[in-house]
Structure prediction request, 583 residues.
Amino acid sequence: MNEAVIVPLIIFLILIFLVGFIASGSLRKSNHDFLEEYFLGGRELGGFILAMTMTATYGSASSFIGGPGVAYTEGLGWVLLAMSQVVTGYFVLMILGKKFAIMSRRYNAVTLTDYLKGRYQSKWVVLIAAVSIIIFLFSAMAAQWVGGARLIESLTGLPYHTALFIFALSVLVYVVIGGFRAVALTDAVQGVVMFGGTLILLVATIIAGGGIPDIIQGLAAENPNLITPFGAEGSLTPTYVSSFWILVGVAVVGLPQVTVRAMSYKSSKAMHRALIIGTIVVGFIMLNMHLIGVFARPILPGIEVGDKVMPLIALEVLPPWLAGVVLAAPMAAIMSTVDSLLLLVSSSVVKDVYVNYIKPDASPKRVKTLSLGVTSLLGVLVLLMALNPPDLLIWLNLFAFGGLEATFIWPVVMGLYWKKGNKYGALSSMAVGVISYIVIQQFFPTPFGMHSVVLPIALSFIAYVFVSLATKNMALEEYAAQQKIEKNL
Amino acid sequence: MSGKNKDYRFTIANREALIGIALAVINFVWWYGFAYGLGSKSPENYHFVLGLPAWFFYSCVVGFILIVALVIVVVKFFFVDVPFEEEKDRGNES
Prediction:
């Protein structure tokens, strides 16, 4: 137990709780529809909060714990790979941007699935979407919880299960009471902490290593491959690294936890500001976090478990109290990812499945109780899953990413920009995407030297276009009917 | 209003989406070109800028700064403010 480290962490947790409570006040007072308020914050996010909540949601356990750990092993090549994420800072908002905001308001959509329902008018699209969100995001969440618990474990020396319990409880409390606005506001606080923590830790690491030239020379002396783009074993090929542009760069457009934020901004001004702030913050954090992982190597050689690199380097190069403050950053990243995922899965259960198909006439009060109940229940379920943690945090997380991207990217993007796209195209694209991703991930992990997500995304695109064109006449009548509905809205 | 079904805001949205794609392409080319253009030779022959290998400095550090600058320019000069809510008198017009 290291009290000097733990006190700042506890203060951080209390601060987060305070923000959550303040946000829950606005939930009670709000005139908005409960669902819109609880799951979207009443569509009132300004630019700064929006940018921060996207960054914080996106910068997860893998970028703060797993990522720097791999960078420690692979060297600068992994930082190069991580920089493919800069594109997400602007790409998502520019592509979904105004059109998605307008359409989701027109459809009254609160979740990504609502949007798909409005666009394609199909029960099966809605059900497949909801089920894949629930399954994939659930596993992504479990990975994050493991990360959060590991972090507390390595900081405090508490047993893993106790650490997990503390972590779970703190997340659950503010998500359940505050909803999306609490999540977005705490994300903003967490984003600031992430940004500041990264900066402090980078500077301290460089000083502890005796300056950048010394660190780089030390790395080159140990293994020259560490300072090449090809990784420690020379195994990072340009094709493989480039294919990450798909996984963590452009295809992020299809991730539900990201798209839902593109529904929540207040105005196009807010969106513009978020574009700029988001690009700066995402790029800054990705570059520096991974650099810290690499720079840690000459200072602390021989760390075997990659996930421990971040906590250990912070404890090594910073005074204990400051290490506590800085380590709140990965903590923030994990919490803010978990809280968004939790809210999303629960919105999918309540809104997409229950209100849509089981009981469309449910009273507002019942929906409210159910939302809170489902959110808590899901939290407990994830907690149980995380009790027996799998080892490779980052890969479990990426598995979920790829699956969701393969499912959603084309129904969302083509739905916005291609009039001829119809529900049959969307359905086959989702089915082809998910199935081919799972098959390829299982049996051909790196087809043609690329990450396994690339082919499924190409295949699901082909499926979308071909099936949409083939069923053109079949869909024409329904399309006309839908236009009528839209006009009447 | 340019037509019955054509919302002027969608023309703007389409153009901005294309700008997004263009930026991503520029970003990728810059990133890939410097990383593998300068980084493919043997590490003994590397040049260093501020202590970092030149390939890394230009690809990741300068590349990041360049993209931030481009995003700022594009947003300030090419992005147009539009309302997200449906216009109230829309129903009367059509």
About this structure: Chain B touches chain A through 52 residues (CB under 8 Å). Residues 5 and 94 of chain B are 9 Å apart (CA to CA). The helical segments of chain B are 8-39, 54-78, 90-93. Residues 26-80 of chain B form one domain.
